[in-house]
Design goal:
alpha/beta, single chain, 13 strands, 8-stranded mixed β-sheet, about 300 residues, about 40% helix, Metallo-beta-lactamase, Chain A, 12 helices
């Protein structure tokens, strides 16, 4: 019995050592990524482009109520005067969203409510989506992409910041699978602090790090209003405004985060949100999107 116990103990110890080494590698990588951030003046100047977008809407693919609030899985749809559209994040198909929510149900969340994939919600209008980008490569942001590309007569182009293309970890390689499955083309953005999205004036990207190595912010200006989509640096606008970190267990074991960087990013994003005419919106906070006046896609052009 002692030998059996020793074998079991040794096996358990090896598993713990392996897990620690696995997580250490991810934490070491994310802590080395701290791209430069622009000032508000620099971001403001970059957004002052003629021919900018004229409309903005969100399409929510699923929502789940948790003890921390509602967790939505939307995409952000931006439209230009000529009818071209650009999509930030693609949500998930219904079956994938329900599977994604099951572990959260064990932690006290309610069942996932699904609303259809973005491809299904847009119908024939999905052909107007000419560009796609991701705040980061977790599967709850990327899994809707193959259905979008497959439904298009001329697949859109995926735009990625160099860090998002080159720096991956075990949490983002799972989401990358759906970019590789999709029939859409992929194009790298310039390696600048503020990255202009080619062919889409008034839309820029900024590499962030913190949550994942390739986490990216997108800013867009419509008229006098600037919208900043900050991804999963926080999961809610309240956490951003109150400077609240994610739970330690999450940032250590579930998604290895650079917590000093996410603290810095929360405060930088909050300062952006204090500028006149600027609204900062985390990727999962659909109630905050609605409260800020962002319209929900209903199949017609909606101008702000």
């Amino acid at each position: 019995m002692r030998k059996i116990a020793a074998y079991i103990g040794g096996f358990f110890l090896l598993c713990c050592i392996g897990l620690a080494a696995f997580l250490f590698s991810a934490h070491w990588q994310i802590r080395s990524i701290e791209p430069a951030l622009p000032t508000w003046a620099q971001l403001d100047a970059a957004l002052q482009k003629s021919g900018g977008p004229v409309a903005l809407a969100y399409l929510n693919t699923a929502s789940q109520m948790s003890p921390l609030g509602e967790l939505g899985h939307p995409g952000i749809l931006i439209e230009w005067q000529d009818g071209r559209r650009f999509l930030i994040d693609t949500g998930m198909p219904p079956d994938a969203a329900r599977e994604f929510g099951k572990p959260l149900e064990l932690l006290g969340a309610g069942p996932t409510t699904t609303f259809g994939s973005i491809a299904a919600q847009m119908g024939a209008a999905v052909d107007t989506v000419k560009g796609v980008a991701f705040t980061h490569l977790h599967n709850d942001h990327t899994e809707g992409l193959p259905g979008i590309c497959a439904a298009q007569s001329a697949p859109a182009t995926i735009y990625q910041a160099p860090l998002q293309q080159a720096e991956l970890n075990h949490t983002t390689t799972m989401g990358l699978v759906f970019l590789e499955e999709a029939s859409c083309a992929r194009e790298a953005l310039p390696d600048n602090v503020i990255k202009q999205i080619p062919g889409f004036p008034g839309l820029v990207a900024v590499s962030l790090g913190g949550h994942t190595p390739g986490s990216t912010l997108y800013a867009v200006r419509i008229g006098e209003q600037t919208w900043v989509f900050s991804g999963d640096i926080t999961n809610s606008l309240n956490a951003l405004q109150q400077d609240l970190p994610k739970p330690w267990m999450y940032s250590t074991f579930v998604v290895p985060e650079h917590t000093e960087r996410t603290t810095h990013l929360r405060r930088w994003l909050r300062e952006l949100g204090e500028q006149q005419g600027v609204t900062v919106l985390p990727a999962h906070d659909v109630p905050a999107m609605s409260a800020a006046g962002l319209l929900q896609w209903v199949g017609i052009t909606q101008s702000l």
